[in-house]
Write a structure and sequence with these properties.
Layout: H1 2-15, E1 26-29, E2 33-35, E3 39-45, E4 52-59, E5 80-83, E6 90-95, E7 105-111, E8 118-126, E9 142-144, E10 149-151, H2 156-159, E11 165-174, E12 180-181, E13 184-191, E14 197-202, E15 206-207, E16 212-220, E17 227-235, E18 238-247, H3 251-279
Parallel strand pairs: 2-8
Antiparallel strand pairs: 1-3, 3-6, 4-5, 4-7, 7-8, 9-11, 10-11, 11-16, 12-15, 13-14, 13-17, 17-18
Amino acid sequence: MLGAVVLALLLASVSVGPVQATEGPVVRLSKSQAGTGGSVTVTGSGWRAKALLMILVCGQAVPARGVPGGTNSCANADGRAVTTDAKGRFSRKLPVAEPPVPCPCVVHVATVTGAKAEADAIFQVAGHAVEPLPAETSGGRLSVLTDTRLDGSSGLLTWFGAPPARTLVFTVGNVGTSAVKNPVFQVGTSHGVFAPQWEEQQWRGTIEPGRKARVELPVELTGGAHGDYTVSLKYGGKVLAEQPWGVGRPWGVTLFWVLVCLVVPAALFRLGMAVVDRVRPRRPGRPRRAPARLRPPARLRRPELTLRLPGLRSGPAEQPPPSSTLPWFTPDSDPGTAGRLSAPHDDSPTTPTRKGST
């Protein structure tokens, strides 16, 4: 009996014992304070394997509240990128720089691509101004309840370089204690590892506590944009969601320039040949021939009238042959028959004639 009681107590202690929480992304610093120009070694664990991270020094932030001002309150020019190993760990030396806003400051580490994850560690920039954090606004708080999506498609004009446009659609719920009226969201678009370019957009409507609403916000890129983009949604200084956007290359622009490179040289060649045909000298006695496009077709030409007489050959009139008379003879004293070229001689018969006979 006693053994059964002891066994029951052991089982109860095991069942009610503390459960170890799953460890999330962690950031550690080699020192908690350094001046501008120095450096601090940042190490981390618990991150996604082979993940690309961005390390920044940010102001007006504490680990409990994150970075309310986003990357606009960080020293972005002196940030460093690092890739985690197969076990989700990293180590990177970060130069110390003053953020654009006063401290309290943190070293902020966040993923660049893939699933969003971030972590902060308290850090003091020696010699930098320190001011109290702005008070948190109480009342309504919005939270994204569904996955975001981009509605819309590209048209023919986008294929020729027009700005790609989509509609960011998502559902938010009010998890606060007061209504939220006409909330102002920030929509940012980023390409690759560059920071998002934020644009404020106001949604017209009121969301009561415990209610939800479907929100649609327009998103537009610059003309000719192509590649992999990321659309981010921010409200109250916190990023609520991110949506990838693959934009195709505007092949119509490439086709246009290929046609220009083919058509323009051909047109210039034909124009040059026409100019050369106009200015080149003509051979004497050779009539100028009209261009082929100005000559009427053979079936429309008028037949030439030719006078045909018996005994005469058709064709152009023949010129009489030149006279074969030698220079020392005249036409009246030509001794021979037509066509003889020998010297004159006696044509009388060989038998002599009687004198006085006729």
